[in-house]
Design a protein that fits this description.
Distance between the termini: 56 Å
Largest sheet: 5 strands, mixed
Strand order of the largest sheet: 1-6-7-4-5
Low-confidence stretches: 1-19, 205-210
Number of strands: 9
Oligomer: single chain
Strand content: 25-35%
Helix content: 10-25%
Mean pLDDT: 85
Shape: elongated
Number of domains: 2
Order of helices and strands: EEEEEHEEHEEHHHH
């Protein structure tokens, strides 16, 4: 099966003939609430099973299958970058409201900046710091963690920012589900980001003054 994206150029194919680097499809429930990212193969299955209620987004992908033995015609299916799925008989699962915490999304939330010194760092140079240390009853939750370089994390140790005299540059916040989906996808398409951004929190804590 071949996939040809309309208006996006060619995907990268591996030596095995499988497509790699293809953008993920944004799956919604029938009301338009974002649920999760799915690979294009899963989207094809949903289309063929008649589970797609409606679509959105500007990007389309043409999936070409095999040739019919009787007519010689090649099967063809167009899938969209955003798909809303019909409710199943068992009831579709509700999207999660509290995103799981991981370093990947945490570092992206904090724009790959150390929240103490303000310098930019790569993934491998950042650590997860607990504002209120775990040893002092702090929790491993979004609102109590920030990105910190190794030097600042070591310097802060098991102290609070106030005790270490290391004020935070910004208040940590809990992303909603739409924000989490945007943070978790490094290859997000422009139309998918536009769709998700309409569901971002409108009031974001301001960066703290030095």
């Amino acid at each position: 099966m071949l996939v040809h994206p309309v208006g996006l150029g060619s995907f990268i194919h591996s030596n095995s003939g499988k497509m790699t680097g293809a953008p993920l499809i944004l799956r919604l429930d029938v009301t338009g609430t974002p649920v999760r990212w799915i690979p294009w193969e899963d989207a094809v299955c949903l289309y063929t099973r008649g589970m797609v209620a409606w679509t959105a987004g500007e990007h389309e992908f043409v999936v070409r299958g095999g040739h019919a033995r009787a007519t010689g015609e090649r099967s063809c299916l167009t899938i969209h970058s955003i798909v809303a799925i019909k409710r199943s008989g068992r009831g579709a699962p509700l999207p999660r409201t509290l995103p799981p915490l991981s370093n990947h999304e945490l570092f992206r939330r904090d724009a790959f900046l150390c929240m103490y010194c303000g310098d930019p760092f790569s993934d491998g140079q950042l650590t997860r710091d607990h504002v209120i240390p775990l040893s002092r009853g702090g929790l491993d939750v979004w609102s109590n963690v920030v990105s910190a370089c190794r030097s600042c994390n070591t310097r802060k140790g098991c102290k609070t920012p106030e005790q270490a005299r290391m004020p935070l540059l910004a208040v940590p916040y809990v992303p909603n589900w739409a924000e989490f989906l945007a943070l978790s996808n490094r290859r997000i398409l422009a139309d998918q980001m536009e769709f998700l951004s309409t569901r971002f929190k409108r009031h974001r804590p301001a960066r703290l003054s030095a």
